[in-house]
Amino acid sequence: MLIAEDVVLLLTDDTTGRPVVDSTRRDLVLAGAVVLELAERGRLQLSGPGQEVRAGRVVVADTSPTGDDVLDTALGNLAARKPDKPKNALPAVAKGLHRRLLERLAERGILRVEEDRVLGIFPRTSWPALDSAHEDELRRGLHDVLVVGRTPTVREANLISLLQSVNQVPKVLPGAQIGRAELRRRAGAVEGSFASDAVRKAVDEAIAVMTATTTTVSGA
User: Fold this and answer.
1) Among 116, 206, 162, 198, CA closest to 10
2) Helix, strand, coil shares, percent, the chain, to 5
3) Average pLDDT of adjacent 10-residue blocks, the chain of 220 residues
4) Could you tell me which of 25, 84, 26 has the C-alpha nearest to residue 53?
5) Which residue, among 77, 76, 101, has the nearest Cα to 91 in the 3D structure?
6) Per-residue model confidence (pLDDT) at position 160
7) Residue 146 CB contacts under 8 Å (≥ 6 apart), including other chains
8) pTM of the model
9) Rounded to an integer, what distance in angstroms lies between the CA atom of residue 144 and that of residue 38?
10) Burial of residue 24 (number of CB atoms within 10 Å: 0-12, 13-18, 19+)
């Protein structure tokens, strides 16, 4: 299971099958999860001082296939681009990603597909939970880390970092018996990998840029 699939499960309402976060933040955090996984697998790296590429750029270090279609598609998209800042690379990875992750989860029997029409006119697809065992395990793990105080695994720390980047930690732990602000504080204190910290910063920056652009267009 990709960490991006974990994220999409946690950010999809089990009953309605609809996202619990707006599409801009959803798409960017899913792209961030894919970039993070590629970095953890040694396919991507962030350029540093003294390299031919300017520092702080996403560089494809290894183009060999991972064996996963989502990761390999993202890797191919990034390899076809010039090395760029992480916040600029995320939109290229995000294209079509949400739908593909949902389809994969449905193919495995974790989600089901429901088609209907809004107001009887506009087609809409929902993805309610069919088998929530894996998602329940994820939530238990996050509860143990953020509420009980267990030391997180690397994967859990990375997942928390991604959820924190879109301010959704309290949303995925309803009824945690501690305040939302305290949950955010604890999530912010979790130390992920260097790659997860870079991705989290990139998601934050990309959201800020896209929000500013949307506000400017709306104002005009």
Assistant:
1) 162
2) 55, 10, 35
3) 97 96 94 94 86 85 96 96 90 95 97 85 91 97 97 94 94 91 94 79 84 50
4) 84
5) 77
6) 95
7) 160, 169, 173, 176, 183, 186, 187, 190
8) 0.90
9) 27
10) middle
